[in-house]
Amino acid sequence: MAPRARAYWLMKTEPDVFSIDDLEQRGREPWDGVRNYQARNFMRQMNEGDYVLVYHSNAAPSGVAGLGKIVAPARPDPTQFDPKSDYYDPRSSPEEPRWSLVEVGFVERFVEVVPLAVLKADPTLEKMVVVQRGSRLSVQPVTLGEFKHVLGLARAKTRAR
DNA sequence: GCCAACGTTGGC
DNA sequence: GCCAACGTTGGC
């Protein structure tokens, strides 16, 4: 078996709820609560070792806050079965789970968030899903080129200080 | 807090 | 299967 190529992703989180700092403190986190089919389908394609740009949404500024890594592949998200959870889905069942989660491990917290405005102003990233108008997808694929370029932007800030 | 853009639901 | 109404996301 040829090793599967590593893939790259962007996952959004609201830092008021769960931030890159929270991920750093915990080390790894089950990424529960995703309730969008497209996002779920991307999570089901993820493999251990894939890298994740951790994106802060509804933040000041919104942008890429750090780097994570997939440490466990998709499995049923238990919150869908829990009537007390905000993410409870009465139409899902353990026999036929509708929603999945992956586990994300902490890799790196950027010195500064790379703001969405910077991504949008960068011609190299014009195809990136997160800069598209009205993009709401909370789990997105990222190309290797985009991934490297965003890391470069984050590191440029580090070197400049 | 506003609101544009989007995804989902459900009547027909 | 269409599409209006509704709820949500997320930038600003």
In words, what does this structure look like?
By secondary structure, the protein is of the alpha+beta class. It contains 4 helices and 6 strands. The chain has helices at 20-26, 37-44, 116-121, 144-160, and strands at residues 8-13, 28-30, 51-56, 63-76, 100-115, 139-142. It has a 6-stranded mixed sheet. A hairpin with a 6-residue loop joins strand 3 and strand 4. It is globular. The protein binds a DNA duplex (12 and 12 nucleotides) through residues 12, 14, 36-38, 57-59, 62, 116, 133-136, 138.
Keywords:
alpha+beta, 161 residues, six-stranded mixed sheet, DNA-binding
SSE arrangement:
Layout: E1 8-13, H1 20-26, E2 28-30, H2 37-44, E3 51-56, E4 63-76, E5 100-115, H3 116-121, E6 139-142, H4 144-160
Parallel strand pairs: 1-3
Antiparallel strand pairs: 1-6, 2-5, 3-4, 4-5
This protein binds a DNA duplex (12 and 12 nucleotides) through residues 12, 14, 36-38, 57-59, 62, 116, 133-136, 138.
Number of helices: 4
Helix and strand composition category:
alpha+beta
Fraction of residues in helix: 10-25%
Rg from alpha-carbon coordinates = 16 Å
- Give the SSE order as H and E letters: EHEHEEEHEH
| Global mean pLDDT | 93
Order of neighbouring strands in the sheet with most strands: 2-5-4-3-1-6
**Broad shape:** globular
Number of strands: 6
Q: Kindly, what is the distance between the CA atoms of the first and last residues, rounded to a whole number of angstroms?
A: 45 Å
